[in-house]
Amino acid sequence: MTLTHLLVVSDIARSTAWYRDVLGAKLIGENGGTSAVFRFAESWLLVVTGGRPTDDKPTVSFEPPPHPDRVTGELIIGVPDCRAAYEALAARGAQFLAPPVTYAWEIRAFFRDPDAHLFEISERRRDERQRGEPPRDEPPRDETPPDADS
What we know:
By secondary structure, the chain is an alpha/beta fold. Helices cover 17% and strands 30% of the residues.
């Protein structure tokens, strides 16, 4: 079983360049100027332009996020060193909302793709387990930094 994350974008060429050159995802293929397939952090990313309803989704249209500050989801990238990942991504053109912020349980920073899809880099802090607290519920985090080949 595999999981593919689909993200709707407004400009496939701009997004293909961003996912490849800034995020560091490996471009696997492109389809007719309307989609691009990437491998990143042991996952698939499918970037597509918007679209109208189809026979198999008769009431659903695909469109990029309408507002950059209103999100219904994000992609979280687990990294071993948030500050190093922040510096690497920023050097390649990622525009962060703020520098990394340290919390008791993690160090994290947020950035967006050109269509305002939200990404987070997150470094889990080890002291949570050292204090004897149960681990919080979270999705599995890949330990591959975004500046490594994906």
